Amino acid sequence: MSVMADHWVENHRRDGWRRQAKAGGYRARSAFKLKQIQARFELMREGDVVLDVGCHPGGWTQVAVETVGEHGVVVGIDLQATQPLEGATLLTGDVTDPYTQQRLLDVLAGREVNAIVSDISPDITGNWDIDQSVALDLVAMVFDFGLPRLAPGGALVTKLFQGIGVEELIGCVRPHFSKVRRFSPDASRNSSSEVYLVCRNHTPWSAPSATVGTRFEALMSQRLDVPDDEVDATPSGFRVVRRGSGQD
Ligand SMILES: C[S@@+](CC[C@H](N)C(=O)[O-])C[C@H]1O[C@@H](n2cnc3c(N)ncnc32)[C@H](O)[C@@H]1O
Q1: Are residues 136 and 169 in contact, defined by beta-carbon separation less than 8 angstroms?
Q2: Please, which residues bridge with residue 170 across strands?
Q3: Higher model confidence: residue 23 or residue 35?
Q4: What pLDDT shows up at residue 210?
Q5: Is residue 159 annotated as part of the catalytic site, yes or no?
C-alpha cells in the first residue's frame, strides 16, 4: 500500500472511533482503548475501587464508572481540570506532586485500590529521546505511587511509549505481579508506537524493597555508563532525565 493509502486508511479508522465515541456518549475515543483492554483482561469488577491516572477529559473514567457500578469508587486525577462526572471524584493536580498524592490518599480514605488505569502521557517536546525517557520516568512514578495502595491480586494498566528503556522498566515491574504483558488495542493501532502494559495479580509479598523508579534509574545508568568510544556506536542518544535537575 502507498503512504497516501496508509494515511487514508488510518484517518478513516480514527474517524470511525471518533464517531463511535460520540454516539456512545464518551468524552474521548480513547474510551474504546480501555473498553478493549477491559474486555480482554477484566481488570475492573463491579464494586471495585479504581484510580484513573491522567484522566482528562474523562473517557477512561466513564468506562471505569460504568464497570464498577454504583457500589464502586472511581477517583481520577489530571493536570487539567476534568468536567464533573457522576460516580467519580476528580482531582486536578500533578500526580508526581506530594501535595496531590496526599489529596488522593485523603479521597481514598484508607481503601485499597483494586485497579489502577493510567493513560498518562507527558507534554511532548518533539525530541523523541527526551519525551520517551520523561514518559518512562512518569510511568515508574505511577507504579511507585500506586503499588502501596494496590490490593493483593489487583491490576495496573499503563500506557507505555516503546523504545530504549522499556525492557528495563518492564523488568523492574515484573516482580510485583504474576502476569505482565504488552497489549495494543485495535483502537490504538495507529502510526504511533502506543502500547499498554497490562499487569495482573499484584503480588506484594514478592516485591523488592527498592522502588521501581530507583531500580529503573540504576539499570539505565548502568546501561549508559559505557566508555566514550562506545557511545558513538549506540544509535540513540537516550538520556536519563531527572526531574528538577535538567538532563545528564
Ligand atoms: C491521553 S490523555 C488521557 C485521556 C483519558 N484517558 C481519556 O480517556 O479521556 C493523557 C493525560 O495525562 C495527563 N498528565 C500528564 N502528566 C501528568 C501528571 N504529571 N499528573 C497528572 N496528569 C498528567 C495530561 O494532562 C493528559 O490529560
Answers
A1: yes
A2: none
A3: 35
A4: 97
A5: yes
What is the arrangement of strands in the sheet containing 49-53, beginning at the earlier edge strand?
Answer: 88-92, 73-78, 49-53, 113-118, 150-161, 194-202, 177-183
pLDDT digits (tens, 9 = 90+) for 54-108: 999 999 999 999 999 999 999 999 999 999 999 999 999 999 999 999 999 999 9
Q: Which atom of ligand 1 lies nearest, measured to the CA of 52?
A: 6
Rounded CA-CA distance 96/107 in Å is: 17
* pTM for this model (two decimals): 0.85
| Residue 13: predicted pLDDT | 55
- Which long-range contacts does 28-33 make (Cβ < 8 Å, 24+ apart)? 28/57, 28/58, 28/59, 28/60, 29/59, 29/187, 30/59, 30/60, 30/119, 30/187, 30/188, 31/59, 31/60, 31/62, 31/63, 32/185, 32/187, 33/60, 33/119, 33/185, 33/187, 33/188, 33/196
The C-alpha atoms of residue 216 and residue 179 are separated, in whole angstroms, by: 19
Spatial separation of the C-alpha atoms in residues 33 and 186, rounded to whole Å: 7
Q: What residue ranges in 93-164 does DSSP mark as E strands?
A: 113-118, 150-161
Which H or E element spans position 200? strand 194-202
Atom 8 of ligand 1, nearest CA residue? 59
Tell whether domain 28-231 is in CATH 3.40.50.150: yes
Q: Which residue has the cell 518512562?
A: 136
Q: Is the CB of 55 under 6 A from ligand 1?
A: yes
Cell numbers that stand for 85 in this block = 462526572
Per-domain boundaries in the chain:
28-231
Q: Is the CB of 85 under 6 A from ligand 1?
A: no
| Pairing mode, strands 194-202 and 177-183 | antiparallel
